[in-house]
Amino acid sequence: MTFADLGLSPKVLSAVADAGYTQPTPIQAGAIPHALQGKDVLGIAQTGTGKTASFVLPMLTRLEKGRARARMPRTLILEPTRELAAQVEENFIKYGKNHKLNIALLIGGVSFDEQDRKLERGADVLIATPGRLLDHRERGKLLLTGVDILVIDEADRMLDMGFIPDIERICEMIPFTRQTLFFSATMPPEITKLTEKFLQAPVRVEVARAASTATTVTQRLVKSRSKPWEKRDVLRKLIKQEEEDLKNAIIFCNRKVEVSELFRSLARHEFNVGALHGDMDQRARMTMLSNFRDGKLKLLVASDVAARGLDIPDVSHVFNYDVPIHAEDYVHRIGRTGRAGRLGKSFTIATRSDTKYVEAIEKLIGQTIEWHDGDLSTVEESESADEAPRRGKGSSRRGGRKDEGRERKPRGGRHHDAAPSEAKAEAQEEPAPKSTSRPAGNERKPRDWANDDARPAREHRGRRRNDDDGDTPVGFGDDVPAFMLIAAKV
Ligand code: AMP
């Protein structure tokens, strides 16, 4: 099958040919003909499958008739994160190069005025994160009654981020005569319910479940003791071992705090490293990403939420500094390498307390992952209290062993969890990290709700999965005064 068989307009076909794509991917072949007929589509597909073009191309074709009116966008695409929204905009620019369309991007971290001007001019395509969209609407700057096509992308991620009530509100603001194109990598019950409420007789298009990893990726588990400094040591050695093949790598951590700590540690050890997580402002995230894409940064430390859906071609290595708690996240992470038939490598650092998560991953992907250099049976844990790792709320949620790091010592300094040699190095003046932006990690800064994609009202699901906002300290957090640690007499 070719793109010409799908019913796309000549202008779109010419842009697709210029992009160098000859054959539609399965999600494109399945969704585009129905989308062109104006039908609702439920696409079950993850990033990397060509999902974006599967809605952008038919939308471009359909937008060729009619024109935009001030403040009344003709189409609306909802994305969970700023990066994804920006990526969709890039797709519209690439495939819409033969069209004269006004595209407005409404995301947090960018001034309202500029966005207002775009809305005022009349937008053919409005791409938005839910929070910023509602902010504009509440300011009276936006009417959604002219929207003919609504796209809800990465719906399961919206759920994770607590956006579902917002999505429901937005769906109710748009005439029911609209066409809805709905995409999700997985279909948890909440998402099924949403589709039942807001889609009309949708055509269901499902492509390869998020349970398969590319055969071009060599996957390995790497044993480690559980202390952070031990894991960091293992990671550094791995990176050095892989130096020859390593073009660039993403290093995944489970939590924002770890992203921050690991980034600082790698920078101190003079690796060419950057970091990506939800607390960085839009400009810093974009700069970081483009530096990584352009090869100016070799390593990128990231959390799942920050990295989800980012189109970073040709990553040679993925390192999982933490075993992901949700098995599907493993598949998403590994999917960053070995793309388009290229060879890739992934290394997952595993400690004894990760065993059940490793088992869940192996069950999901239907294969056992080989150990790189011997399995955990040879690992003995060092349990001296001096090395007790910092335990933020929830950091032991991987079922850490009972005897592990229970006792807390007052923190003498920031790096109390470092190995003796590393602690010494770290106690000295820290060299300025090389990258342009430091992750905010555990630096607590006042939250800018106006510029934030996830405001508290939306956090209906309580604690978010893979919460990118990290842990909120409880009581004294890690800075417990010494007198509080004196054993109480019972
Ligand atoms: P997506 O799933 O939309 O994030 O797309 C993943 C990657 O596949 C992007 O780099 C697209 O440019 C690329 N892509 C999209 N459609 C095709 C196609 N038909 N053939 C080859 N690559 C494609």
TrEMBL record:
Residues 378-480 are annotated as: Disordered. Keywords: ATP-binding, Helicase, Hydrolase, Nucleotide-binding. The keyword Nucleotide-binding applies. Residues 391-400 have a biased composition (Basic residues). InterPro entries: DEAD/DEAH_box_helicase_dom, DEAD/DEAH_RhlB, DEAD_box_RNA_helicase, Helicase_ATP-bd, Helicase_C-like, P-loop_NTPase, RNA-helicase_DEAD-box_CS, RNA_helicase_DEAD_Q_motif. Residues 32-205 form the Helicase ATP-binding domain. CDD domains: DEADc, SF2_C_DEAD. One of its GO terms (molecular function) is helicase activity. Pfam families: DEAD, Helicase_C. It comes from the Bacteria. Residues 1-29 form the DEAD-box RNA helicase Q domain. Residues 415-427, 441-459 have a biased composition (Basic and acidic residues). Belongs to the DEAD box helicase family. This is Superfamily II DNA/RNA helicase.
